[in-house]
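Please produce the structure of this protein holding zinc ion.
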Amino acid sequence: MQFLSYARHPQRERSRRHALIFRVTDREALVRYRFGLKLSDFLICARCGSYVGVYMDDPGGALGVLNLNVLKDRSRFSAPTSMDYEGESVTERLQRRRQRWTPARLEFA
Ligand SMILES: [Zn+2]
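Below is the modeled complex.
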């Protein structure tokens, strides 16, 4: 899977049509895994097991987040802090994602 672009400031990039593009160059290597609530797809590479990011279809437009650990230049980003969203309701979860996640697109090359 090839990662194309990522907005470092998603809130500022809202007006852009797509800020995060996951381009799948090997369809058979893409595993889309849905956890319990089935709101989104965790994108995993079947060849190396890397967790690449999360993609969610949403009525207002698809959203996504990228696992920065898959980037070669990940050191340019601040270190992630661990978060716990365990007690969140579905509504709260969707609201949080709509505020914080980046407009995204999943493409097949
Ligand atoms: Zn891989």
